[in-house]
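Lay summary

Proteins are chains of building blocks that fold into shapes. Our project writes down both the chain and a compact code for its shape. Here are two examples, one after the other.
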Amino acid sequence: MTPEENMLTAPRTALLLASLSTALVVAACSGGGGTDTGGGGDALGGAGSQGPTSSEKGGTLYYLTQRNAEHLDPQRTYIGRDISNEARMVYRTLTTFPAVSGKASTKLVPDLATDTGTSSNGAKTWKFTIKDGVKWQDGSPITCKDFQYGISRTFATDVITGGPNYAIQFLDIPTAKDGSSVYKGPYKRDTKGQALFDKAVQCTGNTITFHLKKAVADFNSALYLPAFAPYKKSQDQGDKSNFEIFSDGPYKLQGKWNSGGTSTFVRNPNWDPKTDKVRHALPDKIVFTEGLTNEIIAQRLIADNGNDKYAVSDRSVPPSLQPQVIGNPKAKERATNPVSPYVYYLVPNFASKTMQNPKVREALALSTDKSAYITANGGPTFGTPATGIINPNTPGYKKFDVFDAPPQGDPAKAKQLLKEAGVSTPVKINYIYSGGTPTSDKAAAALKEGWEKAGFKVSLQPETQNFYTIVQNPAKQSTWDVAWGAWGADWPGASTVIAPLWDSRVNLAKGTNGQDYGRYRSDKVNKAIDAAYQLTDPDKQNAAWGDIDEMLAKDGAYVPLTATKFFLIRGSGVTNWIDNPAMADAPDLGSLGTTASR
């Protein structure tokens, strides 16, 4: 999902970038690609061709996708593809990452700030100066107060759901007895709470200062997320703003967002390229079409006719259609096969009585057939079996296999564990997953087969849209026992994997599960997270995150599935294609143009 990136302190920066030298996976957040990514591997000759380049402006770029955007509200956006799209078109932040390929994309750069920030007080205080001349789409200036208000919305966890919780986790605001923030956001009339927030996020003219409760050496990297974007208070309608866009980027929404249909972005006349050295903003228009099947998208891009010559997609080519790309030189040169930043995994529902039994969770893990899951998604080049939640190319990765199960699972041992668990068999479980496509349904069926060999009785619940909205909603918790998930580091470091997913203090609230879909809560894990943050030596801190990963796996907090790849294809008239790991390897709209401008 995107993520992301670079650390301010030189020693840590060097360590992280060195760790990326073997594979440029940096970011990710929630996976937007569902279970439909495939791999071309060596058949594509690595990452694939960059294609034509051009600095000419004009034309229309088309974006084809199956999955609807669940949020366009910046404070609610946390799917990698959507972070990338919004950050390149409509929402600017204090810092960001450049529109370039490879390792260079992981170098943090200023965006709305004049530089990447100044830290003091042992990295507990961060100060930024906002550029002069930056404006909203109505021509009004972007102010420090706009940043302050936008960030405050994150604390309204009963209204602004779905986004990251870094502001709640990092800012120096006291917590209540249950571990939640005493500040409940701008919609509550709470003078005391608002004063605490205003002290943690201070405005002095065009300078914004953040006071943190703990040292965060890479806090400036977190600020690239739309959750830290400014928000104009007069435009805020709370939950009703979910599909409203008030732009400060190079494009603005034309009319209303048409969820599940076609929506168009046009140039924002109040965006000044002199203040923006990141976004190239080449197309005159960017047209999104949602709700297409992955098969139709792939067929259209392979055929390369009409407007599809100027089209891109975040959706991987389904396995059944990959031979048409690999065997066609003209299609093959338009395809890429980047290493995905995501680990796919399974989440037991700790609100489910069935999954509260640790032996049942272990049996689930032991009977998970990762090999069959990979085969269903296109074979070995789709990815490799995962044993932890931290991607192997992320600093903090630790090699372990807590249950010592083969990739195809061990149903016999799992069946014995169910007997020891004292539960009646078959054990009924409901598996919810993002998909409803031929490939994702086939992959889910492969998991079901392995589980049922061990003594489970599985009902499959595919969700073609709004998957995260469901699994993040406590009111929907009773509808499933096991959920699919995908995650990658928000910037290079395992702190952006472990803490966002498993710190129950910033995830669990009455109205949302945050990123902790299964409502896992462990005081031991929370204390270990706090201890890891206290370690200033990057090697020791990364080792601590790896240890927590192993602790979570042993407790059955999750079941790892795969470390994945993408298999993307684009139209022949698309220019400036890059593989940008800092933007989740989604099509980088800050770079792309079209030959239609010629």
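And here is the second example, written the same way.
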Amino acid sequence: MKINSLAKLGGVALVTGLILAGCGSKSSQSKKQEISWMTPSPIATMDTSKMTDLYSAQVANGTNEGLLRIAKDNKVNPGVAKSYSVSKDGLTWTFNLRHSKWSNGDPVTAKDFVFSWQRTVNPKTASQYAYIFANVKNADKISSGKMAVSKLGVKAEGNYKFVVSLLKPQSYFKYMVTQPEFFPQNPKTVAKYGSSFATNATKNSYNGPFILKGWNGTNDTWTLTKNKNYWDAKSVKVKDVKFQAVKTPSTALNSYNSGKLDFTTLSGTLAANNKKNKDYTVYPQASTSYMEFNTKKIPALRNTNIRKAMALAIDKKQMVNKVMQGGDITPKGFVPADMAKRSGKDFANEAYVKAGTDYNLKEAKALFAKGMKQVGKKSLSLTLLGADDDDTKRATEFVQSQLTKLPGLKVTNQNIPFKSKLTRAQNQQFDLVLSAWIADYPDPSNFLDLMTSDNPQNDGKWSNKQYDALMKKSETTDANNESARWSDMVQAEKLLMNQQGLVPLYQQGQAALIKPSVKGVQPFPTSPQYDWAKAYVK
């Protein structure tokens, strides 16, 4: 999802927890199993049909559970579904559910998934995330009001078998169902509270490791308390995760240093100043900050040499180490490192094109001169558009300073509120624009699809027929051939970087402080969210 700054604010990247660590030892049981956790923003809603923000989703992933949970190296572990199978044509997914319970004691059944998915795509619900169901049969027709919700391609065969019909094969559908939009909902609870469903902690039912308590709908503190009805409750060691929404980073750091918090995020100079702190850590994110060219509006930007020159003129290492300073890393390409792997090999390594992310000012100047001669121009004046938050302002200032080293190129910065920037970018009202994307699911297509010619997120309108053909092939002809599909996407990424369809600036990382006594908390593989199901205090 495109995010609202180049900082760690995030979009709605909603993937369920990565389990890397084991359970607590006997010594952990002698400690008070309570963790105090900082979050930059309060909860907006706990209705998974209407949820759009990162921090509400973070809580939902602690209090609820979908069919599957994502695990190490992007494998999936059983969730509510104890097993699943896929038809040979890849169009039918059958999930066999375990006997589990809601926090109110009701059984969690296949009908709860049918109800939830139908509710989300129902236009009356006005879910902003209904589009994510697009590959479920009839979902788009239902969302547009052209078909009844009962026609959605899902059905319950008894209480414990849930069957999904897709429009086309989708190998990464197993990742999709780990996200909050795909979680079940208790029909009785939704009916009981109507429009006020999930607007506070008590007006909801939970089927995950924890129950939400103490949230009245607007306050900045709440607690996740161990759910005794969770099917794997015996593995949950922590009794309470106490949250504090702290909007000012320096205030959060002071609370951490005074022992009021066990965890806090860091950014900018606070991150830089704490790198030698023994509690300092960085959680890599499947998120790329990048610059797009408006090839529709500016004829000169259709020239590959000019685009490549501008990419080579930006020192990404300096940007990460001296400008952003918040745990970010230099990019290997558009698809982030350590997000998608096959047979132990990282997609970012296999698709790596050095020239696409390199820094070489001498070569940049030569290519720019060549490109300008090809387009018949001696000078070029461009405006660089970005949001008006502090991190993005620093980023635009740095990029501007780098690009103006190219003889004949003048760059003027324009920083405006994010919503205005987003609208202008979507309407191609820019020359250059800084954007960022955070993965919704750990598959290369989540990034590569953005740059196909007809994708609405392709703000710069870069277009390449070979690229489009490779991505289409990965989704059709090769959709059920994992090796061939992977190869299609590797070729597409290399083509994108060789043609410099965009400029990756850095891969985002979340710098943080966490007390050494807190063990087993695991970051999600895509976004700055965390899983406490296997956490403990030692």
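What can we say about the second shape? The longest strand covers residues 280-293.
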